[in-house]
Protein 1
Amino acid sequence: MGVLTSEAVVLRTWPVNEADLVVSFFARDYGRLKGIAKAALKSRKRFGGALEPMTVAQAWFAERPRQELVRLDQLEIARSPLSAPVDQTRMAVLSFYAELIDEALPERDPQETVYRLLGSVLEETHAIEKSPAPQNRDAGHPERGPWMALTYFSLWMTRLMGLLPDIGRCIVCGDALTAGEVWFNAHADGLFCALHANRSGSGLSADSWQLARRMLRTPAASFAGEAWPRKRAHDLRRFTLQTLERHLEKKLKTAEAIARLGG
């Protein structure tokens, strides 16, 4: 039973007795795994503060014969969410990343593209907490929130899960969409033109539609200099969340927390 190692992101943990934890983590080379961390609540040397959700760490673990859980031996922190000031909004968004990855990805299936996506939005989520945006300071907002990173992650997860048809065309007639005349509804993937919009549908603003098209061809870091007030692309996030939850067949608890924060 050889020990394996990989860069990984901690997703969630559950106590199983007085000292042990079950840890769900997303390993770059091995995919989403669950492991038993023996005496994790007592061992600072092997785990320290590395078990916080969305901690990026080097993980050492071993497969166990006929066991679903791997044996998680050690985590060495590369980047911690606690390295920047913690606030309720930021933690809710980080928890959303963790919950969606944990619910959406199959176990033991390496997903390099998803791993790189997660790394890029984590980088932006950490960066925005460390440096106020001048344009937001002038508007009375001392720091940027994580809304751009959240929007980018939700949109790209929808794409990578195969749930996002061409957003430049109506999914019914195939005609090219026009900014300001784009619609979506809770019961279908993709977007509609005004002619084929369901009466129960919602409009996607011109800014949100154009942002979505840019995001699907541009790295997350390229949006870092833009003003992102809380309500920007709110409708785009609602569109992607409806799609994700419909296919997961469950409500995401962290999405409810973000909604209560106005996001």
Protein 2
Amino acid sequence: MKNSVNLPQKLMLLGSGELGKEFAIAAQRLGNYVIAVDRYENAPAMQVADHSEVISMLSGDDLERVVSKHQPRYIIPEIEAIRTEKLQEFERRGITVIPTAAATNYTMNRDRIRELAHTKLGIRTAKYSYANNLKELIAVSEQIGFPNVVKPVMSSSGKGQSIVKNKADVEEAWNYAIAGSRGDNHKVIIEEFIDFEVEITLLTIKQWNAPTLFCPAIGHRQERGDYQESWQPAEIPEGMVTKAQEIATKITNSLGGAGIFGVEFFITKNEVIFSELSPRPHDTGMVTLISQNLNEFELHLRAILGLPIPTIELFCASASAVILAAEKSDSIIYTGLAKALAEPDVDIRLFGKPTAHPYRRMGIALAKARTVKQARAKATEAASQIQVVSV
């Protein structure tokens, strides 16, 4: 497929969080028109978009209404909880869905992408199984063994994910997974616990008519199933980077389309193990806002529009650290910003989320340094200076 590079283009974001906000900014810098869609008002991307709509993206009728109203050239999903069969219908009507409607359908649920990787492509993954109720979860957990990891098949930002250490923890894990599930699918995936050295994200840029490109691998650390900090480059052997690139190419080629994919891997002492994939910019990839000549949002845009990507350059060791809310509030302010920004080579992104709740990601600190260790320390310290205060 060859896409036009004539600008401006009309782009519709389905999901308008912090990733969508940065993408909208990148798109508008090249003169494009952005419609931001989400399930609540004043979502981050809506604050910078040309137009916004509030709908349920699990409603085919709502999707039909906004697409018919705006007639976008491109539909760009930012979240998983979308009525994907409707996207396939839009695609048949000539609208480009990124990366493709079929790929969005595959990656909407963890079970589909895991089956594609493991069963169809023969890619090494953690051992896994599924459960549709607590009784099945108990049986499967005992079969896979403890500890294991339980996740909803559909969620975002690690919601509903927990490590189950023994049988006594299974019921709590089931309740937590269902509470964190997005959409109308109450199904969980159970994985063996991998004793890894580091988790990485390999940002993989699939182009319409040019070779697949990669950003330098990004290391990241999670708590409660959600990323807390990321750093670039991940300090892993070059042979493992090459292996990860081979796997990422294989799976993204099978999905097709164009755009950036966040492909996650467990790196053990001896293996590169595929974990998950998002067909869009990745939260851990926000480190590229300070680390690279083209950040992940600019790369996503260029790949979508068929624009050239001459080079991807890593400036220096860089890191990101999240800024979290501590309590629920419908009215918030931020303190400590001046102190955080007093440190050289530190930057802050506050997402503009209208409400807060415990552990909600409200912003990130970004830092550059001579070494990854120094960059991580600077980013973590800067993030700790910012307080989300209820007023």
